[in-house]
Amino acid sequence: MTQPTLIRRGRDGTGPLPDPLPTALALAAAGVPVLPLRRGKVPFSNCPTCASNTCGGRPNMKTPGPCRCPGVCHAWAAATTDQAVIVSPPWAAAWRRAICVAYHPGAAGLTVVDLDNADAIAWARTALPATRTVATTRGEHWIYRGTMTSRNAVRPGVDIKSSMSYARYLGPGTCHMVDLPDAVRALAVKKPSSIRPAPHAGAVPVGPGSGECPHRTPAYLERGIAMAEQRITEARSAIHATVYQTFLAVLSRHGWCGCLTDAHVTRLFTAAQSKGETARHCADAWTNARTTLGL
After folding, report:
1. Predicted confidence band at 5 (pLDDT cuts at 50, 70, 90)?
2. Which helix (H) or strand (E) holds 186?
3. Which of 19, 76, 97, 130 meets the CB 3.0–4.6 Å disulfide criterion with 166?
Protein backbone atom coordinates (compact mmCIF):
# COMPACT_ATOMS: atom_id res chain seq x y z
CA MET A 1 0.00 0.00 0.00
CA THR A 2 1.41 3.42 -0.93
CA GLN A 3 2.31 5.59 2.01
CA PRO A 4 0.62 9.04 2.24
CA THR A 5 2.42 12.03 0.83
CA LEU A 6 0.54 14.85 2.56
CA ILE A 7 2.78 16.44 5.19
CA ARG A 8 2.02 18.45 8.30
CA ARG A 9 4.17 19.65 11.20
CA GLY A 10 4.01 18.20 14.67
CA ARG A 11 2.48 20.24 17.50
CA ASP A 12 5.84 20.42 19.25
CA GLY A 13 7.53 21.66 16.08
CA THR A 14 9.97 18.76 15.96
CA GLY A 15 9.44 18.11 12.28
CA PRO A 16 7.04 16.99 9.59
CA LEU A 17 4.52 14.24 10.19
CA PRO A 18 2.62 12.36 7.48
CA ASP A 19 -1.08 13.13 7.41
CA PRO A 20 -2.72 9.93 8.77
CA LEU A 21 -6.08 10.41 7.07
CA PRO A 22 -5.10 9.17 3.57
CA THR A 23 -3.65 6.02 5.12
CA ALA A 24 -6.80 5.52 7.18
CA LEU A 25 -9.04 5.88 4.13
CA ALA A 26 -6.90 3.48 2.09
CA LEU A 27 -7.00 0.85 4.85
CA ALA A 28 -10.76 1.26 5.28
CA ALA A 29 -11.25 0.79 1.54
CA ALA A 30 -9.32 -2.48 1.86
CA GLY A 31 -11.66 -3.66 4.63
CA VAL A 32 -9.43 -2.91 7.61
CA PRO A 33 -11.23 -1.08 10.47
CA VAL A 34 -9.19 1.96 11.57
CA LEU A 35 -9.02 4.49 14.39
CA PRO A 36 -6.76 7.47 15.16
CA LEU A 37 -4.16 7.49 17.92
CA ARG A 38 -3.15 10.66 19.75
CA ARG A 39 0.19 11.62 21.24
CA GLY A 40 1.53 8.77 23.30
CA LYS A 41 0.20 6.33 20.69
CA VAL A 42 -3.01 5.84 22.68
CA PRO A 43 -6.70 6.15 21.69
CA PHE A 44 -8.65 9.34 22.22
CA SER A 45 -10.46 9.85 25.52
CA ASN A 46 -14.19 9.87 26.18
CA CYS A 47 -16.29 12.66 24.76
CA PRO A 48 -18.38 14.62 27.31
CA THR A 49 -21.42 12.43 26.69
CA CYS A 50 -19.47 9.26 27.49
CA ALA A 51 -17.35 10.71 30.32
CA SER A 52 -17.14 8.88 33.63
CA ASN A 53 -18.46 5.70 32.05
CA THR A 54 -22.03 7.05 31.84
CA CYS A 55 -22.62 5.33 28.49
CA GLY A 56 -21.92 1.86 29.88
CA GLY A 57 -18.36 1.44 28.61
CA ARG A 58 -15.45 0.66 30.89
CA PRO A 59 -13.08 3.58 31.71
CA ASN A 60 -10.45 4.19 29.01
CA MET A 61 -12.78 2.51 26.52
CA LYS A 62 -11.21 -0.91 26.76
CA THR A 63 -14.64 -2.49 26.46
CA PRO A 64 -17.80 -0.69 25.32
CA GLY A 65 -21.33 -0.90 26.54
CA PRO A 66 -24.36 -0.22 24.34
CA CYS A 67 -23.07 3.27 23.53
CA ARG A 68 -23.79 4.54 20.01
CA CYS A 69 -21.40 7.49 20.16
CA PRO A 70 -20.48 8.61 16.61
CA GLY A 71 -16.99 9.65 17.71
CA VAL A 72 -13.81 7.76 18.57
CA CYS A 73 -14.59 7.17 22.24
CA HIS A 74 -14.19 3.45 22.46
CA ALA A 75 -10.75 2.64 21.10
CA TRP A 76 -10.72 -0.67 19.20
CA ALA A 77 -14.51 -0.88 19.35
CA ALA A 78 -14.82 2.42 17.50
CA ALA A 79 -12.64 1.24 14.61
CA THR A 80 -14.55 1.40 11.34
CA THR A 81 -14.29 0.89 7.60
CA ASP A 82 -17.05 3.43 6.90
CA GLN A 83 -15.31 6.24 5.04
CA ALA A 84 -18.25 8.59 5.64
CA VAL A 85 -17.73 8.15 9.39
CA ILE A 86 -13.97 8.53 9.11
CA VAL A 87 -14.27 11.98 7.53
CA SER A 88 -17.27 13.10 9.62
CA PRO A 89 -16.93 16.08 12.00
CA PRO A 90 -16.42 14.04 15.21
CA TRP A 91 -13.63 12.05 13.60
CA ALA A 92 -12.15 14.89 11.55
CA ALA A 93 -11.08 16.77 14.68
CA ALA A 94 -9.39 13.63 16.00
CA TRP A 95 -7.48 13.08 12.76
CA ARG A 96 -6.13 16.63 12.96
CA ARG A 97 -4.64 15.79 16.36
CA ALA A 98 -3.66 12.20 15.56
CA ILE A 99 -0.05 11.14 15.21
CA CYS A 100 -0.70 7.77 13.57
CA VAL A 101 -3.29 5.24 12.44
CA ALA A 102 -4.29 2.11 14.34
CA TYR A 103 -6.48 -0.77 13.31
CA HIS A 104 -8.51 -3.54 14.96
CA PRO A 105 -6.77 -6.77 13.91
CA GLY A 106 -9.55 -9.08 15.08
CA ALA A 107 -12.20 -7.30 13.04
CA ALA A 108 -9.94 -7.56 10.00
CA GLY A 109 -9.52 -11.32 10.54
CA LEU A 110 -5.92 -10.92 11.70
CA THR A 111 -3.66 -11.56 14.68
CA VAL A 112 -0.55 -9.48 15.40
CA VAL A 113 2.30 -10.95 17.41
CA ASP A 114 4.05 -7.85 18.79
CA LEU A 115 7.74 -8.59 19.32
CA ASP A 116 9.17 -5.79 21.40
CA ASN A 117 12.92 -6.42 21.29
CA ALA A 118 15.70 -8.36 19.63
CA ASP A 119 15.42 -11.30 22.02
CA ALA A 120 11.72 -11.68 21.26
CA ILE A 121 12.42 -11.58 17.53
CA ALA A 122 15.12 -14.23 17.88
CA TRP A 123 12.68 -16.45 19.78
CA ALA A 124 9.97 -16.02 17.12
CA ARG A 125 12.34 -16.98 14.33
CA THR A 126 12.91 -20.33 15.97
CA ALA A 127 9.44 -20.97 17.44
CA LEU A 128 6.92 -19.56 14.95
CA PRO A 129 6.30 -19.97 11.22
CA ALA A 130 7.44 -17.06 9.07
CA THR A 131 4.68 -14.68 8.01
CA ARG A 132 4.16 -11.05 7.03
CA THR A 133 6.54 -8.88 9.05
CA VAL A 134 6.39 -5.15 9.79
CA ALA A 135 9.23 -3.29 11.48
CA THR A 136 8.32 -1.29 14.60
CA THR A 137 10.26 1.26 16.62
CA ARG A 138 11.83 -1.41 18.83
CA GLY A 139 11.01 -4.71 17.18
CA GLU A 140 8.59 -6.30 14.72
CA HIS A 141 4.93 -7.14 14.18
CA TRP A 142 4.33 -10.64 12.82
CA ILE A 143 0.88 -10.74 11.24
CA TYR A 144 -1.11 -13.95 10.78
CA ARG A 145 -4.41 -14.66 9.05
CA GLY A 146 -6.97 -15.65 11.72
CA THR A 147 -8.27 -14.34 15.04
CA MET A 148 -7.85 -15.27 18.70
CA THR A 149 -7.94 -13.87 22.22
CA SER A 150 -5.60 -10.93 22.75
CA ARG A 151 -3.17 -11.11 25.64
CA ASN A 152 -0.17 -9.08 26.77
CA ALA A 153 3.11 -10.43 28.10
CA VAL A 154 2.57 -14.01 26.97
CA ARG A 155 6.33 -14.30 27.28
CA PRO A 156 9.10 -11.69 27.70
CA GLY A 157 8.71 -8.98 25.08
CA VAL A 158 5.76 -10.65 23.33
CA ASP A 159 2.15 -9.40 23.18
CA ILE A 160 -0.74 -10.74 21.10
CA LYS A 161 -3.17 -8.28 19.52
CA SER A 162 -6.30 -9.62 17.83
CA SER A 163 -9.84 -9.47 19.26
CA MET A 164 -10.65 -6.52 21.55
CA SER A 165 -7.33 -4.84 20.83
CA TYR A 166 -5.66 -2.43 18.43
CA ALA A 167 -2.30 -2.25 16.69
CA ARG A 168 -0.51 0.61 15.02
CA TYR A 169 -0.38 0.54 11.24
CA LEU A 170 3.29 0.81 10.30
CA GLY A 171 3.21 -0.14 6.64
CA PRO A 172 2.30 -3.09 4.43
CA GLY A 173 5.18 -5.25 5.63
CA THR A 174 7.09 -7.93 3.80
CA CYS A 175 6.69 -11.67 3.12
CA HIS A 176 3.56 -13.73 2.52
CA MET A 177 0.95 -13.87 5.29
CA VAL A 178 0.17 -17.39 6.57
CA ASP A 179 -2.62 -18.86 8.69
CA LEU A 180 -2.53 -18.40 12.46
CA PRO A 181 -0.62 -21.40 13.88
CA ASP A 182 -1.47 -23.37 17.00
CA ALA A 183 1.86 -22.26 18.46
CA VAL A 184 0.55 -18.70 18.69
CA ARG A 185 -2.88 -19.72 20.00
CA ALA A 186 -1.21 -21.72 22.75
CA LEU A 187 0.61 -18.62 24.00
CA ALA A 188 -2.66 -17.00 25.09
CA VAL A 189 -3.96 -19.97 27.09
CA LYS A 190 -3.64 -19.40 30.80
CA LYS A 191 -2.62 -22.38 32.86
CA PRO A 192 -5.68 -23.40 34.88
CA SER A 193 -3.74 -25.06 37.68
CA SER A 194 -4.66 -22.42 40.26
CA ILE A 195 -8.32 -22.19 39.20
CA ARG A 196 -10.95 -24.59 40.42
CA PRO A 197 -14.70 -24.72 39.84
CA ALA A 198 -16.98 -23.69 42.68
CA PRO A 199 -17.59 -26.60 45.06
CA HIS A 200 -20.80 -28.65 44.77
CA ALA A 201 -22.53 -30.77 47.35
CA GLY A 202 -21.80 -33.89 45.33
CA ALA A 203 -18.72 -35.14 43.53
CA VAL A 204 -17.09 -32.66 41.16
CA PRO A 205 -16.26 -34.11 37.73
CA VAL A 206 -12.74 -33.60 36.48
CA GLY A 207 -13.86 -32.33 33.08
CA PRO A 208 -16.90 -31.49 30.97
CA GLY A 209 -19.12 -34.42 30.16
CA SER A 210 -17.56 -36.80 32.70
CA GLY A 211 -18.28 -37.87 36.26
CA GLU A 212 -21.40 -37.62 38.38
CA CYS A 213 -23.77 -34.77 37.57
CA PRO A 214 -23.93 -32.36 40.52
CA HIS A 215 -27.23 -30.72 39.55
CA ARG A 216 -29.49 -33.43 40.90
CA THR A 217 -32.63 -31.89 39.39
CA PRO A 218 -33.22 -29.78 36.24
CA ALA A 219 -34.51 -26.98 38.47
CA TYR A 220 -31.04 -26.39 39.91
CA LEU A 221 -29.53 -25.66 36.50
CA GLU A 222 -32.59 -23.69 35.37
CA ARG A 223 -32.34 -21.45 38.43
CA GLY A 224 -28.66 -20.81 37.72
CA ILE A 225 -29.29 -19.80 34.11
CA ALA A 226 -32.21 -17.57 35.11
CA MET A 227 -30.08 -15.81 37.72
CA ALA A 228 -27.33 -15.27 35.13
CA GLU A 229 -29.83 -13.78 32.67
CA GLN A 230 -31.13 -11.46 35.37
CA ARG A 231 -27.64 -10.31 36.35
CA ILE A 232 -26.86 -9.35 32.75
CA THR A 233 -30.17 -7.65 31.95
CA GLU A 234 -30.12 -5.60 35.16
CA ALA A 235 -26.57 -4.31 34.61
CA ARG A 236 -26.43 -0.53 34.18
CA SER A 237 -22.70 -0.09 33.54
CA ALA A 238 -19.57 -2.07 32.62
CA ILE A 239 -21.76 -4.29 30.45
CA HIS A 240 -18.96 -6.22 28.78
CA ALA A 241 -17.23 -6.93 32.09
CA THR A 242 -20.53 -8.07 33.60
CA VAL A 243 -21.17 -10.41 30.68
CA TYR A 244 -17.73 -11.99 30.96
CA GLN A 245 -17.94 -12.38 34.75
CA THR A 246 -21.41 -13.92 34.44
CA PHE A 247 -20.26 -16.37 31.77
CA LEU A 248 -17.31 -17.28 33.98
CA ALA A 249 -19.60 -17.88 36.97
CA VAL A 250 -22.00 -20.05 34.93
CA LEU A 251 -19.20 -22.18 33.54
CA SER A 252 -17.52 -22.46 36.93
CA ARG A 253 -20.74 -23.79 38.45
CA HIS A 254 -22.35 -25.66 35.57
CA GLY A 255 -19.72 -26.25 32.90
CA TRP A 256 -18.02 -29.40 34.13
CA CYS A 257 -20.61 -32.15 33.79
CA GLY A 258 -21.95 -31.62 30.26
CA CYS A 259 -25.42 -30.42 31.30
CA LEU A 260 -25.17 -27.03 29.59
CA THR A 261 -26.88 -27.14 26.19
CA ASP A 262 -26.93 -24.86 23.17
CA ALA A 263 -30.30 -23.61 24.38
CA HIS A 264 -28.77 -22.45 27.67
CA VAL A 265 -25.91 -20.68 25.89
CA THR A 266 -28.35 -19.03 23.49
CA ARG A 267 -30.33 -17.63 26.41
CA LEU A 268 -27.18 -16.09 27.89
CA PHE A 269 -26.08 -14.65 24.55
CA THR A 270 -29.56 -13.22 23.96
CA ALA A 271 -29.48 -11.47 27.33
CA ALA A 272 -26.07 -10.02 26.55
CA GLN A 273 -27.12 -8.84 23.09
CA SER A 274 -30.17 -7.12 24.60
CA LYS A 275 -27.65 -4.91 26.45
CA GLY A 276 -25.79 -3.99 23.27
CA GLU A 277 -23.19 -6.76 23.04
CA THR A 278 -22.49 -8.15 19.59
CA ALA A 279 -22.56 -11.83 18.75
CA ARG A 280 -18.78 -11.68 18.31
CA HIS A 281 -18.27 -10.15 21.76
CA CYS A 282 -20.48 -12.85 23.28
CA ALA A 283 -18.54 -15.61 21.55
CA ASP A 284 -15.20 -14.08 22.61
CA ALA A 285 -16.33 -13.71 26.23
CA TRP A 286 -17.60 -17.31 26.32
CA THR A 287 -14.36 -18.64 24.80
CA ASN A 288 -12.23 -16.57 27.18
CA ALA A 289 -14.18 -17.85 30.17
CA ARG A 290 -13.77 -21.47 29.03
CA THR A 291 -10.05 -20.91 28.50
CA THR A 292 -9.64 -19.35 31.94
CA LEU A 293 -11.24 -22.38 33.58
CA GLY A 294 -9.41 -24.88 31.40
CA LEU A 295 -12.60 -26.23 29.86
Report:
1. very low
2. helix 182-187
3. 76
